[in-house]
Amino acid sequence: MSIKKIFDKTKNHKTSDQSLSQHVLDQEIIFRLSKGRLPGRRQWHYLPKFLSKKEKIIIIICLIAILSSLSFFLYNYYQKHCEKIPQNGGYYVEGLIGTPRYINPLYLTFNQTDRDLARLIYSSLFTRDAQGHLINDLAESYEVSPDHLTYIIKIKDNVKWSNGQNLTAEDVLFTYTAIMDQAYGSPLRNSFSGLEINKVDDLTIKFTLSQPYNAFLDLLTIGIMPRELWGQIPASSASLADLNLKPIGSGPYQFKSLTKDKAGNIKSYELTVNPYYFRQLPYIPKLTFKFYNNYEELAAALGDGSIDGAAYLPQKTAEDLITTRRYDLKYLGTSQLVAIFINSEDKVLKDKNIRRALALSIDKNKILLDNNNLIGHLATGPILNHNPYYDKTIAEVSYNPTEAQKILTDSGWSLKTITTDDVSAAQQKLQNNQGDQNEAKTIIDLGPGQWLQKNNQYLTFNLTVVNEPDYLAIAQQIGLAWQKIGIKTYLDVVDPENINNQIIRRKNYSLLLYGQNLGSENDLAAFWHSTQSGPNGLNLSNYRNEQVDKSLETLRTSIDEEAKKKAAQTLQQQIATDLPAIFLYNPTYLYIQNKKIKGFAMEVIIEPADRFNQINEWYIKTKIKWQKTH
User: Fold this and answer.
1) Which of 533, 167, 620 is nearest to 341 (CA)?
2) pLDDT score at 34
3) pLDDT score for 16
4) How far is Cα 453 from Cα 422, in angstroms, rounded to an integer?
5) Do the domains spanning 91-308+596-624 and 334-413+459-587 agree at the CATH topology level?
6) Phi/psi class of residue 447: alpha, beta or left (left: φ > 0; alpha: ψ in -120 to 50)?
7) Residues 6 or more apart in contact with residue 390 via CB below 8 angstroms
8) Cα 336 to chain center, whole Å?
9) Domain 91-308+596-624 belongs to what architecture?
């Protein structure tokens, strides 16, 4: 039919069918004019005018269904046939409090910054996995004699230092010999007393103990040093060597550079991947550490993005930063025990009634509620509750301030009220140099309130605490708790870098709020044995008890499991009876990191540096890997 006939046909339609006929005729005209049955590219522009409302809705629904099905198919195919895998690239910057001094396995005892950096630069015979369990590092295998006196350790072949030289049994021998050599002055020396070390061959070393020591393998997590370099330095000069700050190791990273300010203080420290590392090489090619004087500076650096992570932050500060959505907060289990250690040399604290009253007046559950993210578990004794030797039957000192008050009253202490008028009068006496000046000073120091007094002496204590916000907050809570029963508490706040040398080594305190790192908890003798009391020892309470000493020695040396369990029970019962410390809690380690860091897997750390144990698995960049279809 021609176009002319179509238009003629239009004139003959009845009026009632005009609309329908027009629609049909329009189609015929379009089909006649179109070269193909499908619309051309230009014709699609007129499609909305051509379609009815119902047709438009049907087409839209169909398109949505097709697109949804296609998207689901593509997503499902993507999920099944490809994966994101780590690739090399990026960089990581972490902030630390303090500055490095000796990045040297011989001198790592007290400076945590040194320990952190050493963990990245040095490898050790053994290390720890994500759950804190001991695993091989440099050690390929080991054998223990039936009497637990001889340990033969074979190290991995073809391990190299970051300078490309081979690491051998000679280096292991040198490291542990240097630790035991008094000329080096290593604080680790006492831990290896009575140990004999021999090289069996280039890859095998033998350790011979004078008596069994159940935690011996835990001692072999110390970084191994290169004999060829350190052997050229006299032992008496080792602490002055340039290698202390620019070390050569066999760990995942190697020293690259450091920067100092005008005063000579180290402000940043840069590490790069050790190309000779014997395990999988790290994905992140560069690490930078920046050093800060306090937590305020550290938090500010996190806030403005100058750093990507921080070794440790106070709870409140860390939580505030989490709200920025830039960081992840990781809660890591620890083997640390926080307690108030009671110095038995203090004349007043020798009275067990006073020690018990102090313990009864602390609401540990409130401390838990107020510091929920800081505390993993409340502690009841020297052994943490996740330790297999923990005794659940030990009676805990529960919160009971009424009983505490009664104990003190029965011991002859009575409450005396000091009013604001009394304080004003005392201040007037001091100004006019009248009356008993010492009494006036005491009243001013105590302030208004009800305070315990006996034989004209008030019951007051100094509580020493490290200058860290979380510890300070808890110390203030404890001070308020003791104030409620009439005991005045003064806080002695000590900077972290001074706490060991000025306070702990000298036992220069009456009460010390402190966190002890118990290590693997296989050996508690360092913390409670009589030989560790006095200066330089880690028996922070100066506690002496022969029965406890015997129990500690059994735990340390016996290979009889039943004997060890019984010894652990005796240890916990005796310490619960004597109250040389008020045990508070087992803390959680708060580690904050930028969300760009992936692959962090540590869950339990024995010490803070353990957070780096699997750093070669961290990554920032990824790439897509398509899986082959079978």
Assistant:
1) 533
2) 57
3) 47
4) 16
5) no
6) left
7) 381, 383, 384, 568, 572
8) 10
9) 3-Layer(aba) Sandwich (3.40)
Going from N- to C-terminal start, the domains of the chain cover 3-80, 91-308+596-624, 334-413+459-587, 415-457
pLDDT value of residue 323: 66
Residues in the chain: 630
Query: Is the pLDDT assigned to residue 591 strictly greater than 80?
Result: yes
Please state, rounded to an integer, the average pLDDT across all residues of the chain.
88
- Report which secondary-structure segment, H or E, holds 514: strand 511-517
Q: Collect all residues with Cβ–Cβ distance below 8 Å to 424 and sequence separation of at least 6.
A: none
* Cα 434 to Cα 430: distance, rounded to the nearest angstrom: 6
- The pair of structure tokens assigned to 268 is 């940043």
DSSP character string of 240-253: G-GGGTS---SSSE
Report helix, strand or coil for 530: helix
- Top CATH class, 334-413+459-587: alpha beta
Residue 161 confidence class, pLDDT cut points 50, 70, 90: very high
Distance CA 361, CA 402 (A): 8
Which whole number is the average pLDDT over 208-220? 92
Tokens coding 561? 């499991």
CA angle, residues 335, 120, 117, in degrees to nearest 5: 80
pTM for the model stands at: 0.79
Beta strands in 9-81 (DSSP E): none
In sequence order, which ranges of 231-382 are alpha helices (DSSP H)?
295-303, 315-322, 352-360, 364-370
Q: Which residues contact 213 (CB under 8 A, 6 or more apart)?
A: 148, 523, 556, 557
State the residue for tokens 């008993």.
436
Judge contact between 344 and 544, C-beta under 8 A: yes
Q: Quick one: tokens of 512?
A: 């010390």
